[in-house]
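[Automated response] Your request has been received and processed.

Submitted sequence:
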Amino acid sequence: MHARRALLYVPGDDRHKIEKAAGLSADCVCLDLEDGVAVNRKQAARQEIFACLKTINFGRSERLVRINAISSGLCTDDLRAIIPGKPDGIYLPKVSDASQILWIICEIEELEKQAGITIGTVSLVAGIESALGILNLREICQASSRLSALVFGAEDYTADIGGIRTVNAIEFLFARSAVVTHAVAYNLQAIDMVCTEYKNMERLVEECRVGVSMGFSGKQVIHPLQVTPVQQAFIPDMEALEHANRILQAYQQHLAEGKGAFTLDGKMVDMPVVKAAERLLARADFMEKQQ
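Generated structure:
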């Protein structure tokens, strides 16, 4: 699975922006056919994305393509145009139930066969953007082993529930927690909401801090300026890693002495704390291997 600390959206009909994004070393560059492209530009965007997949060197960045939702009637044409270009993954937005995952998996598999691509090569990312999508998360996560990540779409979710967007994002607490919980339970990545104030670095960093504390793997970004601070925010800092190592070392020492819970730096350490330390170190190791 590819790291996705920053998932950068780029309009699929703008080659200049795609070329620029390819050189930013973002974990994931998401070439957009959905919200970032006008209705009368969809076909032009398909052609541009196909050409870019074939000719542009994206370096270490994952090449993801966000197609239009199944309900749009544009999805099949999107897939037929894009899969032959061999993207690393397809991002299906507005997923509300498992049947949509099953449908698109069949479509991708058939197109992989036609294009001579090894079956299962193209990964799948699901956008969760509605109340129904949140309620059906368990079935969505179980639908296919090809699914690699859940992306929380805050703006569409707000519209769907009739909510009001606030600075502290309290209106998303349940939904974001549900996305992370199900992602972790089914070994998927959880990608957090966009910070729409793309020039407000203070706001961006705070959103990242909250996202990390909630357990998200990464964050959606909409501007090149957001890439570096977001990717840095989702890397465990040295102080946290050193503390995690100290926890594991002390745990091994106390285990050898036949002791369970113990005290370190004035705080009790038991198995949940040990597991959290192991998870943090594993995430840091995964990130390092992606560099």
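Summary generated for your ticket: The chain has two domains: 6-233, 238-290. The CA atoms of residues 128 and 152 lie 5 Å apart.
If you did not submit this request, please reply to this message.
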